[in-house]
Amino acid sequence: MRILTAVVISLLATSVWSQDFEETLRLAQDGDASAQYSLGVMYHDGDGVTENASAAVKWYRKAAEQGDTRAQFWLGLMYDDGEGITQNYRRAHMWWNIARLQGDQRAQQGIRRVEDLMTPDDVSAAQKMATRCFESNYTDCD
Amino acid sequence: MRILTLLIVILFTPPVWAQNLGEILLLAEKGDVEAQYQLGRMHHTGRFMLSDGTSQRVARNGVEAARWYHEAAVQGHDDAQFWLGVMYEYGNGGPRNYKRAHMWMNIGASQGNERAREGRTSVAEKMNLADINAAQQMAERCVVSNYKACD
Fold first, then answer.
1. How far is A6 from chain B (nearest CA, A)?
2. Hey, which bits of B1-151 come out as E strands?
3. Is B129 an 8 Å CB contact of chain A?
4. Contact (CB<8Å) A85/B110
5. ipTM of the predicted structure?
6. Most exposed: A57, A62, B39, B129, by fewest CB within 10 Å?
7. B74-98: burial string, b at 16+ Cβ within 10 Å, e else
């Protein structure tokens, strides 16, 4: 009996879990920035879906390019760490610079740390990239 | 599917190493990424693994190892990317090149390859900041070009 209950509960939980994912995926595909960010987190943590860092990067990027500050912070972290994307300090700096502009405190700390790993030329290149990305309203970020 | 084919080939051909090798070479030449990686390993380690678990000694050849690792690496094989990075780090099969080593390990690591991640960290310790950042741009360019612009 207990086993049966456990099985039923876990089946229900699993279905709620994947329903959550399906719903978020649908919204994200429709272009909802917040859902795109949440989907990124789900892929990053393996919550409701198999963990997949490159899929996390993909969805963080979609949300980041719609101006979602949380996604910008996490995308910067993925670049800093080289998780799901090739490690790239300039890109981390770029996304954190943009997130900082919108008041993200963690991004400020990230910038301070990553600048220790960059030459002045790299920092300068990253700042130009951030300006171009931000002023183009996220259409010129690559 | 290709891996399955390779497995079937390995499992059902008689344990004559030359015949095994012939099959792998054929597959590798046709573009089979796993066969290319196995050839890289063979030339690198000087051992050819047979289907019965024993191995046959062959001459080590760094140039050939690097060539086959490269073939597999540009098809996205993360272990081949790691080993190609190792070849560049130690100047095996070609001149030592830390930037290239960092580039390939960075790419392998981005696919979740743990050894590549550790390798990237250790090669970075031997590099200056300008070279590390330059190697990161090379890695991005390589991946964005779908492995067309990696040199």
1. 34
2. 47-49, 55-57
3. yes
4. yes
5. 0.86
6. B129
7. bbebbbbbbbbbbbbbeebbeeebb
**Which ranges of B17-77 would DSSP assign to H, the alpha helix?**
17-29, 33-45, 62-73
Identify the closest residue of chain A to B143 by CA–CA distance. Answer: A86
Nearest CA in chain B to A81: B110
Q: Residue B68: which of B40, B98, B46, B32 has the closest Cα?
A: B40
Is B56 in a helix, a strand, or coil?
strand
Report yes or no: B120 at the A interface, CB cutoff 8 Å.
Answer: yes
| B139–chain A nearest CA distance, Å | 7
Query: How does pLDDT run across A95-141, given as a tens digit for each residue?
Result: 999 999 999 999 999 999 999 999 999 999 999 999 999 999 999 99
**Would you call A88 and B139 a contact, using CB atoms and an 8 Å cutoff?**
yes
**Domain check: are B83 and B126 in the same one?**
yes
Domain limits for position A33? 2-135
Q: pLDDT digits over A7-18, tens only? A: 666 665 555 556
Residues of chain B with C-beta less than 8 angstroms from the C-beta of A91: 140
Residue B83 belongs to domain spanning:
78-144
Read off the pTM. 0.86
Say if A99 falls within a structural domain: yes
In a domain? residue A142: no
Answer for the pair B47, B57: CB distance below 8 angstroms, yes or no. Answer: yes
